[in-house]
């Protein structure tokens, strides 16, 4: 019985491309060979010779002159895209090695919805760093779609979103349920009501978050189930801006409670029947997470089980 070793040898062209991968990637971003060389810490003539040699080996130019800079050709873009993906994978590996050696000094890129940045995210980061003071955080805010896209592409390690994504390649866990209320101007005809059905809002003007936000999706779906399409006066990217527009009398909105009491100029009315959304933590599936990311993920899950303030 013979044990054959797998052929792991790269093709000759791949082997020659490897040393120039970083140059192609940075050149694609900067569009300037001198700046690309400076970023990589190599002399500009060295970068120029490396690029010329690679073009000759491929058999077609990889760049063309573009004013005072350079622009990658179609072939150059194809190679630069592959180089960028390879560098991202290598960076991930280097990061895992560094954190494996010293897990206490890791780095977590946390994506989250703007609304969760008021209290939940600062509380979680503060409490986690109390026991892990050298772990660094990069905080990325955006719409649910943007955050989930970053999670899938690898630019975000963990995501706090609502609702949690149900997408291939991602794992998630529900942390809490958050009730939604109708926010109306304080002098609105419904302001003194204890409860209101969504169908009663058919004639109202709405202030909504833009498409791509979870609250926008929920609002559109609730209105569709009630038999109408909301009339939209304004769209925003942050719930606090939407709430401010409501206070100014420009429309109504479905939002989580502001806090112990609504802000000045806004009344919050419970929906009948009540409407809630799930807040969840999501992460990439299929490969090990860096130690610091794993530690923070497990901390957040434990925090939720202990009854932490995941609703804000």
UniProtKB/TrEMBL annotation:
The organism's place on the tree of life at top rank: Bacteria
Organism the protein comes from: Saccharomonospora piscinae
Domain named HTH lysR-type: residues: 30-73
Keywords, alphabetical: DNA-binding, Transcription, Transcription regulation
Annotated InterPro entries: LysR_HTH_N, LysR_subst-bd, WH-like_DNA-bd_sf, WH_DNA-bd_sf
Statement: the UniProt record of this protein carries the keyword Protein transport: no
Protein family according to the UniProt entry: Belongs to the LysR transcriptional regulatory family.
Keyword flag Coiled coil: no
One cellular component (GO) term of this entry: protein-DNA complex
Protein name, UniProt field: LysR family transcriptional regulator
GO molecular function list: DNA binding; DNA-binding transcription factor activity
Matching CDD domains: PBP2_GltC_like
